[in-house]
Design brief:
Blueprint lengths: L2 E3 L5 H9 L4 E2 L5 H7 L5 E4 L7 H7 L6 E4 L9 H6 L3 E4 L5 H17 L1 H9 L17 E5 L3 H12 L3 E5 L10 E2 L2 H7 L2 E4 L11 H6 L4 E4 L8 H10 L4 E4 L18 E3 L8 H26 L1
Parallel strand pairs: 1-2, 1-3, 3-4, 4-5, 6-7, 6-9, 7-8, 9-10, 10-11, 11-12
Length: 303
């Protein structure tokens, strides 16, 4: 068995496989090179950078590749139906990064409530804006979570512990002790902060209309860039329809709409929701479990 970790992998997971006599290639191949080199590997591991499109799959199915693992949660960079059609299994690591993402969302709420980033760069420019940077406590404020899966539930638990009221909307999940489930429009209207944690969407859930419902609130998107109509968001931020936004994902990564760069009521991070040592170690461990389960299944089928 040979593994290609095209977007890298935790060193502990690499060491584990090598100890098992399974070579791991950590070299990153661009799309055209991947079509040539990828078929030489039984298992290919990708993050969000590598796009496993139909033409890539056409090349992979001609060779040894039988399993693709997304080292993370979202699978929108992989053509799942075509992989299934070609007999290539696809797995992800959904449990590994929930705490890292939830903590970063909390950090951004505190940042926006207390103007931490504005205070930092204004101080470094020799300004003393003490009066202008009067913020507010997040205690007793309302957090609305759209998408109540693993990350949403983890965030709700942490926000509840900080004294926030938590609302949630998810057509496939139920409320629990940490969040009250309500209709989507009510969530927009009642929330001081709205945090998006949906899978990839065919149409944005954050639009000109929903931003108007959020009047005076703050938007956080740590899910997928296509959850937000970026032009509508930029206009809402300029017009003061909402007070601010924090974005970790974008429609055309890494080519971020430069209009955001001119605005001091938006905070940008380069898709670092899962960029912690702990999350990467957990992802590595989950990859090990996925591959062990996969090989065990193959052995059982072989009799």
């Amino acid at each position: 068995m040979k593994i290609l970790a095209n977007d890298g992998m935790d060193k502990n997971a690499v060491a584990y496989f090598e100890k098992q006599g399974i070579p791991v290639n950590l070299e990153h191949y661009d799309k055209e090179t991947l079509k040539i080199e990828g078929p030489k590997y039984d298992i290919i591991i990708v993050r969000s950078k590598t796009k496993v499109t139909k033409d890539v799959i056409d090349a992979l199915k001609q060779g040894r590749t039988k399993l693709i693992i997304r080292a993370g949660v979202g699978l929108d960079n992989i053509d799942l139906p075509y992989c299934a059609e070609c007999g290539i299994s696809v797995r992800n690591t959904p449990n590994s990064s929930k705490h890292s993402v939830a903590e970063l969302v909390l950090g951004q709420m505190l940042n926006m409530a207390r103007y931490i980033n504005r205070a930092d760069y204004s101080m470094k420019e020799g300004q003393w804006k003490k009066k202008e940077l009067k913020g507010f406590e997040i205690r007793n404020k309302t957090l609305g979570i759209i998408g109540y899966g693993r990350i949403g539930k983890c965030l709700a638990e942490k926000a509840k512990a900080l004294g926030m009221e938590v609302l949630c909307y998810d057509p496939f999940c139920h409320q629990d002790a940490n969040a009250k489930k309500i209709e989507l429009e009510d969530l927009f209207r009642r929330s001081d902060f709205v945090s998006v944690h949906t899978p990839s969407l065919s149409t944005p859930i954050i639009t000109e209309e929903t931003l108007k419902l959020m009047e005076g609130g703050y938007l956080i998107n740590y899910s997928r860039g296509n959850a937000v109509d970026e032009e509508a968001l930029i206009q809402a931020l300029r017009d003061g329809v909402i007070a601010g936004a924090a974005l970790d994902v974008f429609r055309n990564e890494p080519n971020v709409n430069q209009e955001f760069f001119t605005m001091d009521n938006v905070t940008l991070t380069p898709h670092i929701g899962a960029a912690t040592e702990e999350a990467q170690q957990n992802i590595g461990q989950e990859i090990i479990e996925v591959i062990e389960d996969y090989t065990r299944t193959l052995q059982e089928v072989a009799g």
